[in-house]
Amino acid sequence: MSPEEAIAAFTAALFSMMNPIGNVGIFAGMTKDTPIDEAKQTAWMCALAIAITLLIVAWCGPYLMLFLGVTVDTLRVAGGIVVLIIGLHMLFNKSEHKQTTEETKDATERQSIAVVPMAIPIVAGPGTMATVLIAVQHYETLFSKVIISAVSVSLAALCGLLFSFAGPIAHRLGESGMGVVTRVMGLVLAAIAMGMLTEGLKALLPGLA
Questions:
Q1: Which residue from 8, 40, 73, 102 could staple onto 203, CB 3.0 to 4.6 Å apart?
Q2: Could you tell me how many helices (H) and strands (E) the chain has, helices first?
């Protein structure tokens, strides 16, 4: 795989995992009683939290994996399973992968939902973190980390932009429109997850190759 193809594949995987378009409806629902200016401020705070989270994962995650003795291949398998489960939930438009009922109730009682639960775990959840971790474990050069960081920050900014206009976007797409987007992203994620699983299992169990 060429560097350009690798960047494109990572961008597609991360975009699908973050699902900024599908999550617009969630953000709109959580900020429906919030003044427009305050909702936009919350959107950009959420984007900042997403960017910081993914940058920490990209630059500190590999050292944590080394400390814990986790290899890139075992991470691929585990990450592939997590991503596959999330992709299947999205494919059937279920919300179990986003947050529990208790987390949703807690979110309604918070003054700001920018960091919890919007940034974590809805956008930058375990699957998103696993996608970034696998990428930085596979492409270990400094330049690769910079590219991964740039893609992560760009997609976080895209989330902030879309969330800033969450009300109009959600109204225009409607529940069915955002459901279609979520299902498409789920199908893409399921396909990506199978690739992650296959690569990891081939390395761990050479006989399968």
A1: 73
A2: 8, 0
- What DSSP character marks residue 103? H
Tokens of 114: 């920018």
Q: Quote the CA–CA distance of 29 and 169 in Å, as a whole number.
A: 12
pLDDT per residue as tens digits for the range 111-133:
578 998 899 988 998 889 999 99
On whether the CB atoms of residues 127 and 97 are closer than 8 A, the answer is: yes
Whole-angstrom Cα distance, residue 116 to residue 103? 9
- The whole-angstrom separation of Cα 148 and Cα 54 is 9
Coil vs helix vs strand at 109: coil
pLDDT in tens, 56-83: 999 999 999 889 888 878 888 888 888 8
Which amino acid is residue 140, in one-letter code?
E
Q: What is the pLDDT of residue 39?
A: 93
Q: What is the largest CA-CA distance in the chain?
A: 59
Provide the angle, in degrees to the nearest 10, between the axes of the packed helices 3-18 and 72-91: 50
Q: CA–CA separation, 205 vs 179, rounded Å?
A: 38
Q: CA 204 from chain center: how many Å?
A: 26
